[in-house]
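Hello support,

Our group uses your service weekly, and this is the first time we've seen a run hang past the timeout. The protein is OmpA-OmpF porin, OOP family. I'm not sure whether the cause is the sequence or the server load. Input pasted verbatim:
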Amino acid sequence: MKRSIFTLVVMTGLFAPACFNAQQKDSISTEAYQPFTQDSKRFDDWAVSAGVGTALIQTGNITSINNGAGKTLFGYSAYFSVDKAITHAFGLKLQYDKGETRQGFASTKDHLDNVKAARTQYDAISLLADVNISNLLRRVDNKSNFRWALHGYVGAGTLAYRAYLQEPGKPYNQSLATEVKPFKLGSLFAQFGTGVKYRMAESWDLEARAMYVVTNDNTFDGAINQYQHTTNKISDNMLTAALGVTYNIGKHQSHLFWHDPLQEIYYKLDVLADKTDDVEVCKKGDADNDGVCDDWDRQLDTPAGARVDGSGVALDADLDGVIDLYDKCVTVPGPVENNGCPIESIKHNNNDGVSETVLDLKGIEFNLNSDKILSGNTPILENAIRTINQSGGSYLIIGATDTRGTDAYNQKLSERRAGNVKNFLIKNGANAGKLQSVGRGEKDLLYPECEPATKCPEWKNRANRRVYFEAK
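Update from on-call engineer: The timeout came from a worker crash unrelated to the input. Re-ran successfully.
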């Protein structure tokens, strides 16, 4: 069931006064509010994660990716973490990593004496910041249940490892080259990366993650031990990629990273709507189907499609007696016989010198910066054709604009408007010999007070953008 935020605003407006009266400043009861505690939470914020994948040394004296023998040697990696969500977009992870990298090339078939091969077994403990990037971009009024989320990770910790080096020409003879103990200054490392999570169930998430580990150590790859000296002091950095799962600990249906606080409100509104559907709201019904019960509807025969006020009366914005549904000029009063639009009268002097009305025509309005005749003006112009052909005089078709734009531009625009109306009349049967068109730009305003245009509401500026007739 679709429902806009407007519904929430209405609901808030209905219940807010009652809540306010129940919570007077001098007599606030303990039931007027509920402190935020573990029991009052509607979401879980603890989780554990685990995953397995591969590990490769990306930079070093010997590497795992396209090493000296042109091969890529895949190691393995695994991680386990305890996760705490602090906000909907930020959390912390205490993570343990374990794995092994393989670098160089150790095949007896393709082994070269000048290419070393090694493997490194490592253990690491780190503290990672977890940023839910998706939640930073999402709207909180999105009623969809989120299923995907992009996370970013960055942190530091302590790294312990044992690097084994293969002696040249002896593929099965590997000796310990370097060993680094944890929790020492030289064991500090940093890592950062990203992961894409998919919510499989209420408590389970699936994640694909890639991390980049900066060891700041030149002996991690095993090619150099701590007793050797070299000018190549490049940091041996590592890439890890893993597929893992997260278990959200708690009794609630959603974790804080997946929680949408408005979901409960939408649920309650759906329940309320379902109950309302089963109740007969109008005792006497709603005969005209305008949304106002006949019990208090003051207009029981409202036309279909008409907008009504709270008493069921069709709206008439300009109070001219023509409801907005049928009013061709909603904001400008006009008679019923002219569809609620004002009438401009053109008079001629007959042969006896007496002035008589020969043409009643309202202003033909145009959109801003446009000379296109609107489809709503077609009936008016067709009536003008009949009147022109039946009368004995000739007419001047005058184009005008509002005060926006330069004088030169408005002059050209008014000429095009008048010309288009003339062409329309002639094309549809009007006597061409009785018609002449002229443009007066912004010099002939129906509402002169609209100079500049910002002084007036838009309906007045629109009325200035018109074509009208004068008798010659």
